[in-house]
Structures are given as structure tokens and as C-alpha cells.
Design goal:
Elements (H helix, E strand, L loop, with lengths): L1 E7 L7 H9 L4 E6 L8 H9 L5 E4 L9 H13 L3 E4 L4 E2 L3 H34 L12 H12 L5 H8 L3 H20 L9
Parallel strand pairs: 1-2, 1-3, 3-4
Antiparallel strand pairs: 4-5
Length: 201
């Protein structure tokens, strides 16, 4: 059985072109989504995938109607293949029920994996270069050194309003509490271990 899936980005767009093509391709049941391709929640696609049975074939007008990305597209088709469900894209003339169609998707999968490996490699190289220059990942701490010591003293002053302390330090209340709490925790750990020390951060 041929199962059609069609998608348009907004309710204002017409599905007539896709509907005609899917009907002409012999689809007996067609599922529809009115949603952006970037959205993960697509009820029509979920229903279409659940409806498909071994021996069926999911048909779309064009590849970008199905997947949110190349990786997502490959994952969907791989899941269909594992369930013995075929896949056809009319505009690209891809049919995974044929050896040629399967080859195309093996190439797509290899390209997606290659792209992922390149991203990981570039990210690791960037982090390594940053560490070599003395930089680490994450957001830079706002309160360090003398400012952190001043924050610690201000927090210990019961007569000092937190809002005023934050104005003096030029930080938010959340930053003030988080930074001083971290320092207090470090000092407490050191005392419990019997190694009192100064924290000239």
C-alpha cells in the first residue's frame, strides 16, 4: 500500500500540488501537516509512520517535505527500512524499494556522518586552541580576584543590603549569591579537611 505524506509550512498554503502528485502516484491514504519543517512535533507524520505496515511504502512529493535535516531524513528512512517499509520521493525519483534508491540513501548517510565528524573535529580543534591560549569553555566569571573577595566581605556584612552590594559590584543578585556561595563552599571544604587556606581567587 502506498501511504502519502504532505506538509506545508502554514495553514494559508495549499497542499493541492502535493495532493495531486501523491494521488497520481497511487497513494490510498494521505496524511497532512501544517507546520514548519523545523518543528519536531508533526502529528501527521507521526500518524503516517504509525499507520505504515511491512510491505507498505511511504511517499512524499519532495525530500524536504519529510525531514527537518539530512540527519533527520536519514533516521526516518532507516527506521522505515528496519520495519520493511519502503520510501519514495517523487521529485528526486528516489525509491528505496529498488537497489538504486537504497544506494542513494547509503551515500546520504555517509555524507551526514562525514559532516558530523567534521563538526566534532572542528569543535575539538577550537577547544584545544583556546586551552593553549589559557581560555576555557563556558561563560567568563563576572566576579574574580579582588571583586570576589569584596563580594565575600559584603555578604558577611549583615548591615549591607544585597541590592546595594550588587550595585557596588556591578552584578546581579543571582551572580552575587552564586559566586559567594561557591567561595563559602570551597572554604568550608578546606576547613573540614583540616587544611585551612586562603582563597585569593
Amino acid at each position: 500500500m502506498f501511504i502519502g505524506y504532505q506538509r506545508v509550512s502554514t495553514t494559508d498554503q495549499s497542499v493541492d500540488l502535493q495532493s495531486d502528485a501523491l494521488t497520481h502516484a497511487g497513494c490510498e491514504r494521505v496524511f497532512t501537516d501544517h507546520a514548519s519543517g523545523a518543528k519536531a512535533d508533526r502529528p501527521g507524520l507521526t500518524e503516517a509512520l504509525a499507520f505504515a505496515r511491512p510491505g507498505d511504502c511511504l511517499v512524499v512529493w519532495r525530500l524536504d517535505r519529510l525531514g527537518r535535516s539530512l540527519r533527520n531524513l536519514i533516521d526516518i528512512v532507516a527506521d522505515l527500512d528496519a520495519r520493511d517499509v519502503g520510501f519514495r520521493s517523487l521529485q528526486e525519483s528516489i525509491d528505496t524499494t529498488t537497489s538504486g534508491g537504497k544506494l542513494v540513501f547509503h551515500v546520504f548517510a555517509a555524507l551526514a556522518e562525514f559532516e558530523r565528524s567534521l563538526i566534532v573535529e572542528r569543535t575539538q580543534a577550537g577547544l584545544k586552541a583556546a586551552r593553549a591560549r589559557g581560555r576555557s569553555g563556558g561563560r567568563r566569571a563576572l566576579l574574580t580576584g579582588k571583586k570576589l573577595e569584596l563580594a565575600q566581605r559584603l555578604r558577611g556584612d549583615r548591615d549591607m543590603p544585597v541590592a546595594e552590594a550588587c550595585r557596588i559590584l556591578g552584578c546581579s543578585k543571582a551572580t552575587f549569591y552564586r559566586s559567594t556561595k561557591c567561595l563559602i563552599s570551597q572554604q568550608e571544604d578546606a576547613r573540614q579537611m583540616g587544611h585551612p587556606q586562603r582563597f585569593d581567587v
